[in-house]
């Protein structure tokens, strides 16, 4: 298989197995990464993989490549991304790699790489790996290999960290992903009664790819929480770094509103600290976070940018897709299980339901993220042209894509995904009428791009929350 340079993304490496990614390419990636690490006097690497059917073979090939350069590798086998992050923070690992494609369809796979302390490996560094493979710029050596399950270290940490008095009845949906091995155990360890749903590992994902941002995926757990008279429901993605939440009445919450929930509580004793969120998030966050005594900051979508902010001292971060980052008393990386446990801790302290507590926050009309298929080469051209055209508007943000603000409550966003072939669109307004006007405006502006399926925008479901 020839190297497809398009698999080297901004945040990670991803491709279709059998077409863009195979064990040979995986081994070359291992050789390039190992060479780069050794040249920085870094040597010890921890490697884990998700439960996709292709992951074990790709993981083995990656490890072979790392070992061939002289890197020492601890292979932890099946793992979620937060556990690899955790191990780079509490153990003497110079780097960590997870073989995963997160929310991509099952035919995809890839590699997410971190340095020690969960510091992201991304951007130019990923492109450097590509260049090293093209030029066969590899060193040779003999590394040491060890296979060891280190997940008990993480589970014990979570168990000791959270002291919850109430025995919450919790519905957990892992969508047959890798989180199935870890999320139910962690929640039971802190005293929850767990009703597990699709928590049997199956790399075919017979019920669809687990994606907490997807309302269709969340709809089943919404029903089951009510049917089981549960206090709350949590859904986790394939590699465990994202979560979704349903309250006791079956209400599904977007992650930007959950960020407000966490910010309101955590800022009580941490005034004037920074809370970061991405460009897809609600316009109400800025004023609400200020009212809690925090300093709001909108940033680019993507975990490396959040990790950078957390390293620089941010208190809390939330990405609309379900990533939650905790700088207070944690390591600053995104962890769906930790976020779920933290939410339960707050509920335990208040004695109130999530539904009751969420009533305090303002409500607006909005769509979820609308994903418009667009080829990788074309989406950059469209975004460049759209950015030029948007300059006629008074209030436009170019932090990540184009976010046009039309009123105190009304805005829409168009940005290119850095992980998949689509453009991301989202709109918010004070009511259905304003949202409808903004959707019409967006479709008018985008109508010239004939390859875009604008019906996805026109027919997008509008929610109030």
TrEMBL record:
<dbReference type="Pfam" id="PF00408">
    <property type="entry name" value="PGM_PMM_IV"/>
</dbReference>
<feature type="domain" description="Alpha-D-phosphohexomutase C-terminal">
    <location>
        <begin position="370"/>
        <end position="436"/>
    </location>
</feature>
<keyword id="KW-0479">Metal-binding</keyword>
<dbReference type="Pfam" id="PF02880">
    <property type="entry name" value="PGM_PMM_III"/>
</dbReference>
<dbReference type="InterPro" id="IPR005841">
    <property type="entry name" value="Alpha-D-phosphohexomutase_SF"/>
</dbReference>
<feature type="domain" description="Alpha-D-phosphohexomutase alpha/beta/alpha">
    <location>
        <begin position="6"/>
        <end position="137"/>
    </location>
</feature>
<feature type="domain" description="Alpha-D-phosphohexomutase alpha/beta/alpha">
    <location>
        <begin position="255"/>
        <end position="360"/>
    </location>
</feature>
<dbReference type="InterPro" id="IPR005844">
    <property type="entry name" value="A-D-PHexomutase_a/b/a-I"/>
</dbReference>
<dbReference type="InterPro" id="IPR005843">
    <property type="entry name" value="A-D-PHexomutase_C"/>
</dbReference>
<dbReference type="GO" id="GO:0005975">
    <property type="term" value="P:carbohydrate metabolic process"/>
</dbReference>
<dbReference type="Pfam" id="PF02879">
    <property type="entry name" value="PGM_PMM_II"/>
</dbReference>
<protein>
    <recommendedName>
        <fullName>Phosphomannomutase</fullName>
    </recommendedName>
</protein>
<dbReference type="Pfam" id="PF02878">
    <property type="entry name" value="PGM_PMM_I"/>
</dbReference>
<keyword id="KW-0597">Phosphoprotein</keyword>
<dbReference type="InterPro" id="IPR016055">
    <property type="entry name" value="A-D-PHexomutase_a/b/a-I/II/III"/>
</dbReference>
<feature type="domain" description="Alpha-D-phosphohexomutase alpha/beta/alpha">
    <location>
        <begin position="154"/>
        <end position="250"/>
    </location>
</feature>
<keyword id="KW-0460">Magnesium</keyword>
<comment type="similarity">
    <text>Belongs to the phosphohexose mutase family.</text>
</comment>
<dbReference type="InterPro" id="IPR016066">
    <property type="entry name" value="A-D-PHexomutase_CS"/>
</dbReference>
<dbReference type="InterPro" id="IPR005846">
    <property type="entry name" value="A-D-PHexomutase_a/b/a-III"/>
</dbReference>
<dbReference type="InterPro" id="IPR036900">
    <property type="entry name" value="A-D-PHexomutase_C_sf"/>
</dbReference>
<dbReference type="GO" id="GO:0000287">
    <property type="term" value="F:magnesium ion binding"/>
</dbReference>
<dbReference type="GO" id="GO:0016868">
    <property type="term" value="F:intramolecular phosphotransferase activity"/>
</dbReference>
<keyword id="KW-0413">Isomerase</keyword>
<dbReference type="InterPro" id="IPR005845">
    <property type="entry name" value="A-D-PHexomutase_a/b/a-II"/>
</dbReference>
């Amino acid at each position: 298989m020839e190297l497809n340079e398009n698999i080297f993304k901004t945040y990670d490496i991803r491709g279709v197995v059998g077409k863009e990614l195979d064990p040979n390419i995986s081994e070359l990636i291992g050789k390039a990464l190992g060479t780069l690490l050794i040249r920085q006097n870094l040597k010890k690497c921890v490697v884990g993989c998700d439960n996709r059917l292709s992951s074990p073979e790709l993981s083995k090939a990656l490890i072979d490549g790392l070992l061939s350069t002289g890197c020492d590798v601890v292979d932890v086998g099946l793992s979620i991304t937060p556990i690899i992050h955790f191990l780079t923070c509490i153990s003497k690992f110079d780097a960590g790699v997870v073989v995963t494609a997160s929310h991509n369809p099952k035919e995809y796979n890839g590699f997410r790489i971190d340095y020690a302390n969960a510091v992201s490996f991304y951007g130019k560094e990923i492109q450097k790996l590509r260049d090293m493979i093209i030029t066969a710029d590899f060193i040779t050596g003999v590394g040491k290999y060890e296979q060891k399950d280190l997940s008990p270290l993480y589970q014990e940490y979570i168990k000791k960290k959270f002291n919850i008095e109430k025995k919450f009845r919790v519905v957990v949906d892992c969508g047959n992903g890798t989180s199935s091995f870890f999320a139910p155990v962690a929640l039971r360890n802190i005293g929850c009664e767990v009703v597990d749903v699709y928590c049997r590992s199956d790399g075919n994902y017979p019920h669809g790819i687990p994606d907490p941002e997807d309302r269709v995926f969340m709809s089943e757990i919404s029903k089951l929480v009510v049917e089981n008279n549960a206090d709350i429901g949590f859904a986790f993605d394939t590699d465990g770094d994202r979560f979704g939440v349903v309250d006791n009445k079956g209400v599904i919450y977007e992650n930007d509103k959950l960020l407000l929930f966490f910010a309101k509580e955590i800022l009580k004793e941490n005034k004037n600290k920074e809370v970061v969120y991405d460009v897809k998030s609600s316009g109400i966050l800025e004023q609400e976070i200020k009212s809690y005594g925090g300093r709001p900051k909108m940033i680019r979508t993507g975990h490396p940018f959040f990790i950078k902010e957390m390293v620089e001292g941010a208190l809390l971060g939330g990405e609309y897709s379900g990533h939650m980052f905790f700088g207070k008393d944690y390591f600053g990386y995104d962890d769906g299980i930790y976020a779920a446990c933290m939410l339960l801790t707050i509920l335990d302290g208040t004695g109130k339901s999530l539904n009751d507590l969420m009533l305090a926050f303002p409500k607006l009309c909005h769509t979820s993220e609308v994903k418009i298929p667009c080829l990788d080469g074309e989406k950059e051209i469209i975004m460049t042209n759209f950015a030029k055209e948007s300059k006629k508007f008074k209030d436009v943000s170019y932090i990540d894509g184009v976010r046009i603000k039309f009123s105190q409550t009304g805005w829409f966003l168009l940005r290119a995904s850095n992980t998949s072939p689509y453009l991301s669109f989202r709109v918010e307004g004070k009511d259905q009428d304003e949202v409808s006007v903004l959707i019409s405006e967006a479709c008018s502006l985008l109508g010239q791009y004939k390859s875009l399926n604008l019906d996805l925008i026109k027919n997008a479901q509008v929610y109030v929350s």
